[in-house]
Specification:
Helices cover about 10% and strands about 55% of the residues. By secondary structure, it is mainly beta.
């Protein structure tokens, strides 16, 4: 869920990565981040926004195989030719997700779901053998207020007891050269600070109706043949890792 937040949000702003492309790999000291995914459809209009779906996956590794530090904050800037379109979509409140398993979270926020996937966390308690736990992800719309779109990422993993983890993502427009959207994700503490996300795989796609017309949660256009994204992850203990993704698109 750590980098799930990073790139889930990338999906929101259309920092697309072609499935056939090699993963983007970023290394900072002992940390390695690997990101990959794909946008569909691959061909998009040049002059108007069109609905898209995004699949994103990633891994957080260490060079020496040690336990990776936990991510605390993610800041991601995304291509100005993509956007999130959440107005009119049903809203889920964070209280409907906290302390609920995946089935209960889906039942409470079914009309607000915008994506799903899975994540793996590694837990390393002092003087115990580390263990891994994989659980489902549910992404839901948290609403739009004051120009800020909120998304919640709900994960349910055994760490070691079954636990609901909710990441809050805030998305807003910016004007920064080729970038037009910024997402900031606040990552919850896992297993009292002993847990770290090591991998994720998710898909974001949602269509809905607003004022009688069909809408899509994610929209993009291929204005100049490329998409850009810049992400920075701040980890516990001070490390910060930044990476840029540039991928091609084609005009239909």
């Amino acid at each position: 869920m750590v980098l799930a937040a990073v790139v889930a949000v990338a999906g929101l702003s259309v920092a697309g990565v072609a499935p056939a492309a090699k993963p983007t790999v970023v290394r900072a000291g002992n940390l390695i981040l690997k990101l990959n995914g794909g946008v569909s459809p691959k061909r998009l209009p040049r002059n108007r926004l069109a609905p898209i779906a995004l699949r994103v996956s990633g891994d957080i590794l260490t060079v020496d195989g040690s336990h990776p530090p936990a991510a605390r904050t993610v800041i991601a800037d995304f291509d100005r030719h993509g956007t999130v379109n959440a107005r009119g979509l049903p809203v889920c409140r964070i209280g409907q997700l906290v302390a609920r398993d995946t089935r209960a979270a889906k039942a409470a926020c079914r009309s607000a779901i915008v994506g799903s996937g899975k994540t793996t966390v590694r837990v390393a308690f002092p003087e115990q053998r580390p263990f891994f736990s994989t659980g489902p992800l549910v992404l839901v719309n948290g609403g739009v207020r004051g120009g800020v779109t909120t998304m919640y990422i709900h994960a349910y993993v055994n760490v070691p007891a079954p636990t609901a983890l909710v990441t809050t993502v805030k998305i807003k427009k910016i004007r920064k050269g080729r970038f037009g959207t910024r997402a900031i994700a606040a990552i919850p503490t896992i297993a009292g600070g002993s847990g770290s996300v090591t991998s994720f795989d998710l898909k974001i796609q949602r269509s809905f109706r607003r004022n009688g017309s069909r809408q899509s949660y994610l929209l993009a256009r291929c204005a100049n043949g490329r998409f850009f994204a810049l992400g920075t992850v701040a980890f516990a203990g001070g490390p910060r890792v930044s990476g840029t993704v540039v991928r091609a698109c084609s005009v239909r």
